Amino acid sequence: MKGAYFFIAFFLLFTSAMFLIPISMFPGDTVLRMVSSTTFEYTPFLSALINGIVYSLVAWAIFMFAMRKIGKTSSTDSAKNS
User: I need a labelling partner for 36 at 20 to 30 A (CA). Which of 15, 44, 64, 66 fits?
Assistant: First the structure.
């Protein structure tokens, strides 16, 4: 459940940051250029949404990996102490 909260928090953070600071950034702009050659009025929002999802997934994966590492080390330490 911690992972879901972490993902939502970072998704909101990254999406709002990408929307408020409209710079072209990978992968959002690249995906939109591959899908359509015309520009839409909502292109910055879609780019921010794609970037928010991708960067939140990366942050979530790192968080989950770190939590597993911490969990394994604490469980092995408690097993040694018993």
Answer: 15
